[in-house]
Amino acid sequence: MSDIPTVAVTDLPDDALILDVREPDEWAAGHAPNAIHIPLGDIPARLDELPPTDASLPVICRSGGRSGRAVQWLVQQGFDVCNVDRGMRGWAEADKPVVTDNGQEPQVL
Q1: Sign of torsion, CA 97 102 106 107?
Q2: Residue 77 and residue 99: Cα distance in Å, rounded?
Q3: At 20, is the secondary structure helix, strand, or coil?
Q4: How confident is the model over 72-86, as pLDDT tens digits?
Q5: Contact residues for 15 (Cβ-Cβ < 8 A; gap 6+)
Q6: 66-86: buried (b, 16+ CB within 10 Å) or exposed (e) per residue?
Q7: CA separation for the pair 106, 109 (Å, rounded)
Q8: For tag attachment on the chain, is the N or C end more exposed, with fewer CB atoms within 10 Å?
């Protein structure tokens, strides 16, 4: 997977616009504040929901595997995206903010 564009968590601002491709239960448990949630399996049907950006759109999952597959496919479709190295686990370990939409204590599943 070395040919997949990748970005380090530490190179992203805390309020970065990110595409989160995890499953709904993982998203509900905790996500980056400005993330957009489109589960991996839904991406082909929801391409119109990807935001226009001036820079490469970071894609994240729990550890980088699913987001790596998403990035690989999206690049083939002509999108400017990059995989977030180490995923949400790396995000949380770097003390980046993690939020929930339900007011519960956030966690990374």
Answers
A1: negative
A2: 30
A3: strand
A4: 999 999 999 999 999
A5: 33, 34
A6: bbbbbbbebbeeebebbbbbb
A7: 10
A8: N
Q: What is the pLDDT of residue 1?
A: 44
Residue type, position 65, single letter: G
Residue 79 CA to residue 35 CA, distance in Å, equals 17
- The torsion angle over the Cα atoms of residues 24, 11, 13 and 36, rounded to 10 degrees, is -20
Does residue 82 carry a catalytic annotation?
no
pLDDT in tens, 20-59: 999 999 999 999 999 999 999 999 999 999 988 889 999 9
Question: Distance between CA 97 and CA 30 in Å, rounded?
Answer: 9
Tell me which of 9, 61, 88, 92 is the catalytic residue: 61
What is the DSSP code (8-state) at residue 64? S
Name residue, tokens 């003390």.
Answer: 95
